[in-house]
Amino acid sequence: MDLFEDDAPKGNAPEFTVSELTGSIKKTLEGSFGRVRVRGEVGRVMIARSGHIYYDIKDDRNVISCTTWKGQVPGLGVTPEEGLEVIVTGKLSTFGPQSRYNINVDSIEVAGAGALMAMLEKRKAQLAAEGLFAPERKQPIPYLPQVIGVVTSPSGAVIRDILHRLRDRFPRKVLVWPVAVQGNNCAPEVAAAINGFNALTPGGALPRPDLLIVARGGGSIEDLWGFNEEIVARAVAASDIPLISAVGHETDTTLIDFVSDMRAPTPTAAAEMAVPVRMELLAWVEEQGARLHRSLGASVDRRKQRVRDLGRALPRKETLINAPQQRLDLWAERLPAALRTVTGRKRVKLADAALRPGVLQRGIVTQRDKLRSLADRLDPALQRRVARAHEALDRHKLRAPDTSRSQEQCATLLRRLSDRANRQQEQRVARLDALDRLRETLGYKETLKRGYAVVRGDGDVVTSVAAAKGAKALEIEFADGRLPLAGKSKATKPDPKDQGSLF
Description:
By secondary structure, the chain is α/β, with parallel strands linked by helices. The protein has 13 helices and 14 strands. Strand 6 (147-152), helix 3 (157-169) and strand 7 form a beta-alpha-beta unit.
């Protein structure tokens, strides 16, 4: 029965429930259209927490709701963005709870290069606003990397060109991470390769590259679109390893070129940027060595000439020596008088010191007694040493010739020790005698023989006029005796045995 028959009697029209009518409309709509391709501009876009995407396709008069389930999102090809002109492919259906029809979209194509460029410019402006293109974020390319990581297709001509160019210029170790360079899998695989190289541990079993090259040959904007995806741009910006982008030919430009640390017009040019020419580097090193050698030679020559110039400016050696020689002669003439003056001062100071003859005499007697004691102990000690040597010889039962030789050696040693002891004793006695003579020489009596005199007042040495005036009796001692003088009162007769003290 036709549900939409107009000439059916209204009074006899069958009754449907809402669900029955909605189901019939759904079957009719899906049976009449099935899969459809619709061109329009993307309207509002909402991504649910579940991962489903809800958006609208519109033109200047009408709007169609579109739905892409979570499992269908990886196969879309292009993520819907508001304002983008696209061609969606899917199944037309209805949504009964809201009395709406929609398209379950499983594929999206950009409707023309103009729309792609518009989306590219929009994405480029967004990333630039986030600072991903800022020059200060770019890292310097290492001059001579040890390991180079290449992200490209292993079956294309690009990898062969890169390896050939590296081998010609400066052979390096190359790690290749195979990826799809176009299609739906391009962007996620390139981003995963960049993140994978950065995740390698430096110094591990698989070395971490010092430089990355993302390379692909030329193609249309649709073929290169994977390198315009946001996921790739963000992976390049987050890379800790310096990266060179070599996508397409010189006229091709993708988002990865703006984010990378350096852009190469071709994959071959990227290899040239990665390493220097080995022969040119060797020639440069030799040239620098030659320049250094010439510079050192010239510097040495200049310094030699400078030394010669300074030598000519210096005065003659006689001129430098004359003045010191004159000063030396002057001090040599003044030296004897200065020595006599210093000796006289030291003698006076020594005469004034508390050095009494009795103290020196007792010291000399003590040293002589010590020497006599050591001399008395020396002979018995030597005798005991010889006796112990004989006992040792007897214990070892040495042969007669050896015993005689040992006895002779002991006797020789005994004579040498005795002579040495006698010489030491004589030396010490001579030293004591010299000290005794020095004591006599430095005594005040020797000073009296040179014409000096000692003035005493009341038995004490008088050293000032005030002390002499205050003394009751004065006495002058000369080298040959003492002369009493009358004081203010009757002087007491000094004791002849009292020799007095100079100190």
